[in-house]
Amino acid sequence: MATVIVRYLGPSTEVLLPDLGVQVERGATVEVSEAFAGREPGAWTAAQAPTDGWPAQRTDSGWLVQDPGSGLLAQVGVWERVAPVTAKGAAKPSTTDAAAAASTTEG
User: Domain locations in the chain?
Assistant: First the structure.
């Protein structure tokens, strides 16, 4: 199973992830499945019409829609990806991310 390391940014001092049975403090990281982490919202793109559940804007030249994302990462400003998924399915932080993750998870 592919995993991703994500960091909780807030707004609360901590949050419960009941599906995982863990409490995560602001600034701490947690390793979750790629599906649970989800994806960040996408860019605005031209469309023929609004798509159900997606943010949409009417412009002079037609419609723009935005993929709303999914999972934890759809909550922009609340969760951020710390480490990418590797081909083998294990999240590996980069050198700078590893130092940042160590400082937030240790203290």
Answer: 3-106
**Residue environment code for 20-45, b if the CB has 16+ CB neighbours within 10 A, otherwise e:** eeeebeebbbbbbbeebbbbbbeeee
Mean pLDDT of 86-105: 46
Q: Is 6 exposed, middle or buried (0-12, 13-18, 19+ CB in 10 A)?
A: buried
CA dihedral (98, 104, 105, 106) in degrees, to 10, reads 100
CA dist 27 and 79 (Å) reads 10
pTM: 0.67
Contacts for 50-58 with beta carbons within 8 Å, 24 or more apart? Answer: none
**CA–CA dist 66, 76 (Å, integer):** 14
Most confident option among 1-5, 17-21, 43-47: 17-21
